[in-house]
Design brief:
The complex is a heterodimer.
Chain A lengths: L1 H39 L15 H11 L10 H17 L18 H10 L1 H11 L3 H32 L4 H7 L13 H14 L11 H4 L9 H26 L11 H6 L5 H22 L5 H28 L8
Chain B lengths: L1 H10 L2 H14 L23 E3 L14 H5 L5 E7 L5 E9 L8 H5 L5 E3 L14 E2 L1 H10 L1 H12 L3
Antiparallel strand pairs in B: 1-4, 2-3, 3-5
The chains are: A mainly alpha, B alpha+beta.
Chain lengths: 341, 162
């Protein structure tokens, strides 16, 4: 009995150790987004609240907390309030299987990739439910667009993950990272380069980010699926979206950029010199880099037209992944060094 | 063949990378932001901002209630009532400008034969209560008194072009 309670407390403590930094990163990702996009548009971004505007996310959070939460009278209140929970819960739950460093993982599931795929797929239901429960035309349009888009890109994403599974010969995220050890050129981004790009693009599409933000489409359908939401319910959608971005970046790091492995591994002098740096630092740095690319993409590209999104998903990304399954299959069969020995 | 090369090029995401290079360069470019309350953009002496009624150096108000500004105002923002003062000179008893109606065209200033009504270069002002948008004669004269030096300087700067 006592040991059970103790185990439970340990698990809760572990969850907090993961969730608190993740939520803080979410808050400061919004800040970083505004700063980076501002800088890319020759502006300075938020700089009023606190030193360099670092208090801005806190001020935003407080504002959203104190705002009234309006539930439209024509909506379905139960589903309406359930949707934001469904937006944020999977985005946080998926962090359970992400290895932050060698052995630093909450749940070392042997089918971690499947768990990740299953949990992140739940996110689309929040958009569907919110769009339907709002009982508003624009929200419904957003939900329909998002459903079609996410389903299309999930296929490409699934195939991309199949390729990673083939290459690593394991569905455990720790083992996938360990298979990539040996330095920068041993990571999977190089042998699986088209798959890495496809996965990243589908990741951007999965999180409904620019240039695939059809579900929001401010200029066409106001704010899409969350047009009727306000206050904390809206904040939940926001948190979920940004937590998903960080998650996708962490997953890209794990699958293609060697997770916690040092990029200088195997280089004669530098590798030994930087061997003391803990793996979690490399993991965070790589994740930050991909988060920056997300913001960079947002600052650069205009929104795709709807048929262009469908064309890209079905006629380009999916054929590439299927082709690369064959290529990687042959490469594994022929044991091409250094990746597939 | 060229079509084929074009396809290959689009698969390398070349155009997208060129775009990202451009935004990447702007990340380090000089920022154009003006930090407003601390800094502000330069204002022309011709800027048409908040209105003011001026006085002569001896303290006498300039306005002679000719009502030209009221007549020329395209937005009908100006209301004037006139009556003889104790010394039998013609003066306004009511001089009101509704700043919500005003379109800041500057016609009142141009029509004034005695340079009484002017638009100052003041641009940062606000109303906190209903009714504050209607400026009465006392308020207009007070603005004129406070900024007389600035108004005179702006007028002198622009005089050569009028």
């Amino acid at each position: 009995m006592m040991t059970d309670l103790f185990t439970l407390l340990i698990i809760i403590a572990k969850i907090l150790v993961i969730l608190v930094p993740v939520l803080l990163s979410v808050a400061y990702l919004t800040y970083a987004e505004r700063k980076v996009i501002g800088y890319m548009q020759a502006r300075v971004g938020p700089n009023r609240v606190g030193f360099l505007g670092l208090g801005q996310p806190i001020a935003d959070a407080l504002k959203l907390l104190f705002k009234e939460m309006i539930i439209p009278s024509a909506s379905n209140p139960v589903l309406f309030l359930f949707a934001p929970i469904l937006a944020i819960a999977p985005a946080l739950a998926a962090w359970a299987v992400i290895p932050f460093a060698d052995g630093w993982v909450l749940a070392n599931v042997n089918a971690g990739v499947l768990y990740l795929l299953a949990i992140t797929s739940l996110g689309v239901y929040s958009i569907l439910i919110s769009g339907w429960a709002s009982n508003s035309k624009y929200a419904f349009f957003g939900a329909m667009r998002s459903a079609a888009q996410v389903l299309s890109y999930e296929i490409a994403m699934g195939f991309a993950i199949v390729v990673v599974l083939m290459a690593a010969d394991s569905a455990n995220l720790m083992e996938i990272v360990q298979h990539q050890s040996g330095g920068f050129w041993h990571w999977y981004w190089l042998p699986l380069l088209p798959i890495f790009v496809v996965y990243f693009i589908s990741g951007v599409a999965e999180t409904n980010r620019h240039p695939f933000d059809m579900a929001e489409g401010e200029s066409e359908i106001v704010a899409g699926f969350h047009v009727e939401y306000s206050g904390m319910a809206f904040a939940c959608f926001f948190l979920g979206e940004y937590a998903n971005i960080i998650l996708i970046c962490a997953v890209v790091t794990t699958f293609f950029f060697g997770g916690w492995l040092s990029p200088f591994q195997g280089i004669p002098l530098l590798g030994n010199l930087l061997a003391f740096v803990p793996g979690v630092i490399w993991f965070v740095l790589k994740t930050w880099f991909f988060m920056f690319v997300f913001l960079w993409i947002r600052a650069t590209f205009p929104r795709y037209r709807y048929d262009q999104i469908m064309r890209l998903g079905w006629k380009i990304l999916i054929p590439i992944t299927i082709l690369w399954i064959v290529v990687v299959g042959l490469a594994i069969e022929m044991r091409i060094p250094p990746w597939f020995t | 063949m060229s079509q084929f090369l074009e396809k290959i090029k689009s698969f390398t995401l070349w155009e997208l990378l060129v775009g990202m290079k451009l935004t990447g360069r702007y990340l380090f470019s000089k920022k154009v932001t003006i930090q407003f309350p601390e800094e502000s953009t330069p204002t022309s002496p011709r800027f048409r901002g908040l209105h003011a009624l001026r006085r002569y150096p001896n303290g006498e108000e300039r306005c002679i209630a000719c009502k030209l500004c009221e007549a020329v105002c395209p937005a009908l923002a100006i209301t004037i009532e006139a009556a003889p003062r104790a010394d039998n000179s013609r003066r306004t008893t009511v001089y009101e400008i509704d700043l919500f109606k005003c379109i800041y065209c500057g016609f009142c200033e141009e029509s004034c034969p005695v340079d009484s009504i002017v638009e100052t270069t003041l641009k940062n002002y606000h109303f906190t209560q209903r009714g504050q948008n209607i400026m009465n004669k006392q308020e207009l004269l007070a603005i004129g008194d406070e900024f007389e030096q600035d108004i005179a300087r702006d007028k002198a700067d622009d005089a050569a072009f009028r």
